[in-house]
Amino acid sequence: MGMKATKELFLEKTIEVVARVGMENLRTKMVADAAGFSEATMFRFFRDKDEMLCETFLEVDRRVSEVFLACFKPEKFENTTCKEALFEIWKKIFSYLLENPNETLYLIRFRYSALYSSEIRSKRKAYDGSLNKAYEYLTDLNAAGVGTYQGFLTNYAFEMTLCFAEKIVTGRIQLTEDMKLRLWNAIFASTEFFCK
Predict the structure, then answer these.
(1) Residue 195 bridge partners (DSSP)
(2) How far apart are the C-alpha atoms of 6 and 12, rounded to whole Å?
(3) β partners of residue 143
(4) What is the reported pLDDT for 108?
(5) What are the φ/ψ torsions at residue 79 (nearest 5 degrees)?
(6) Which of 126, 146, 138, 132 is nearest to 88 (CA)?
(7) How far apart are CA 142 and CA 139, in angstroms?
(8) Strand, helix or coil for residue 70
(9) Rg (CA), the chain
(10) Cα(57)–Cα(11) distance, integer angstroms
(11) In degrees rounded to 5, what are phi and psi of residue 116?
């Protein structure tokens, strides 16, 4: 196994272990054992546990960002309304979070930890590219001016979606079509002024 593949394995096992035991109970030995390597090998890739957790968060964030970016194919949304486009984008993200429960749990646990600093937020791929691209795209679909609320509303919509996905994957809420529709209506209500 090459260096890159070994590091990727450690990142993957960090996601799995945090999803299982939480951030506060995580021990580096758990990740090393899950990956089938020693802690000494693991620390060739990461300075310490915090760096490993931060790099893992940025990897999960990159994956979510790719889901957003995959939505932006001009031909896909020809002859569609802003609301329909927004729904398709939201549905892809929500589905991804439900289909990848370990990543969902990792995201929410990291985002509510002390490690989620302004420095880490500034490195997020979603904010650097894909979420801003969503707003540019919606503006092209005759949405209202984005203005200074762009980041706030993007974050609000994603946080609400992430929180509901976490409750579903942990079994605290049962996923039904009615619940999904109610969640979508709440998300759209918070951003509908973008759509004429």
Answers:
(1) 143
(2) 10
(3) 195
(4) 94
(5) 55, 40
(6) 138
(7) 5
(8) helix
(9) 18
(10) 9
(11) -80, 75
- How far apart (Å, rounded) are the C-alpha atoms in residues 114 and 159? 17
Dump the DSSP string for 5-32. HHHHHHHHHHHHHHHHH-STT--HHHHH
Cα–Cα dist 44/130, whole Å? 32
Interior/surface letters 10-20, b for 16+ CB within 10 angstroms, e for the rest: bbbbbbbbbbe
140-179: pLDDT as tens digits: 655 544 444 555 566 777 888 899 999 999 999 999 999 8
DSSP 8-state symbol, 138: H
Hey, is 195 helix, strand or coil?
strand
Q: What is the dihedral of CA 106, 154, 196, 78, to 10 degrees?
A: -60
